[in-house]
């Protein structure tokens, strides 16, 4: 655990040195939320302002930003040769990635909290506690970190990681129902509910869970979505660690 905390501190120092990049990760969604909220004032429709309906999606975006942040951070370490040097250290991949993940989870929580605060400041009145929103955001952020690890491990350079992470973020937004209605493609039925391929995206489960919680449901009410999110996040993070470990053998453990 001490090594995980050591690498968490190392990651935090790197993010402080790249203050502009860190600010983009944390503040992009809150700023966009404020801008959209201001521009949509006076645009009430039969179901309320479009801004009200957009808040769950904006919160999802704050979590998706971690794909980019995680991919770029690890790609920078690979390209600089730091991972090659770490191969001689008595550390494991989980030590390095666990420390980095702790910091990335903090960024996701900070961005989600700031996004919700920005929406509140513009009159949005969620029927959910900040804690419920943060629980969902942190669980989903683990999948974003895993996807970022996959991108960095397979691309190896910051430039390529930037391009691939951008495409991946677009796909996660496009097919999860955040921006456009989700395509209805049925694979199986479980307990009477139709399950399609896009239900396997963590962003789909996060968007559905957030929509329910912000409308007044408790975490217990969306436990199915939450469990699915746990599972998908575990798979994504596990895949990211596995591919990273195959590409970069660290330490003697």
Biggest sheet layout: 2 strands, antiparallel
The radius of gyration computed from the alpha-carbon positions, rounded to a whole number of angstroms, is 19 Å
SSE order: HHHHHHHEEHH
Instruction: Tell the overall outline.
Output: globular
Q: Going across the major beta sheet, what is the strand order?
A: 1-2
Number of strands: 2
Poorly predicted sequence stretches spanning 5 or more consecutive residues: none
Q: Specify the helix fraction band.
A: over 70%
Whole-number mean pLDDT: 86
**What is the number of helical segments per DSSP (H or I, 4+ residues)?**
9
Structural class given helices, strands, pairing? mainly alpha
First and last CA, distance: 15 Å
Fraction of residues in β-strands: under 5%
Count of the separate structural domains: 1
Detailed description of the structure:
The longest helix is centred in the first third of the chain and has 31 residues, at 50-80. A hairpin with a 2-residue loop joins strand 1 (188-190) and strand 2. The protein has one domain (2-247). The mean pLDDT is 86. With 253 residues, the protein is an all-alpha fold. The protein has helices at residues 2-17, 19-39, 50-80, 82-86, 93-121, 130-155, 158-174, 202-214, 223-247; strands at residues 188-190, 193-195. The chain is globular and about 55 Å long.
């Amino acid at each position: 655990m001490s090594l995980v905390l050591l690498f968490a501190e190392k990651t935090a120092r790197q993010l402080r040195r790249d203050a502009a990049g860190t600010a983009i990760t944390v503040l992009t969604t809150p700023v966009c939320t404020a801008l959209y909220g201001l521009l949509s004032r006076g645009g009430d429709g039969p179901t309320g302002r479009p801004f009200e309906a957009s808040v769950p999606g904006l919160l999802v975006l704050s979590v998706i930003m971690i794909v980019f942040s995680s991919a770029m951070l690890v790609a920078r370490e690979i390209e600089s040769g730091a991972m090659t040097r770490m191969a001689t250290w008595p550390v494991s991949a989980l030590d390095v990635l666990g420390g980095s993940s702790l910091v990335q989870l903090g960024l996701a929580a900070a961005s989600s909290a700031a996004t919700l605060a920005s929406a509140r400041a513009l009159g949005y009145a969620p029927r959910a506690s900040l804690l419920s929103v943060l629980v969902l955001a942190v669980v989903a952020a683990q999948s974003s970190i895993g996807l970022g690890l996959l991108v960095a491990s397979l691309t190896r350079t910051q430039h390529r990681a930037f391009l691939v992470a951008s495409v991946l973020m677009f796909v996660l937004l496009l097919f999860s129902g955040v921006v456009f209605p989700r395509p209805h493609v049925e694979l199986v039925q479980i307990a009477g509910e139709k399950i399609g391929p896009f239900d396997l995206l963590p962003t789909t489960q996060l968007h559905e869970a957030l929509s329910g919680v912000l409308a007044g449901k408790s975490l217990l009410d969306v436990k199915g979505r939450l469990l699915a999110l746990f599972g998908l996040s575990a798979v994504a993070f596990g895949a990211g660690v596995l591919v990273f470990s195959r590409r970069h053998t660290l330490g003697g453990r």
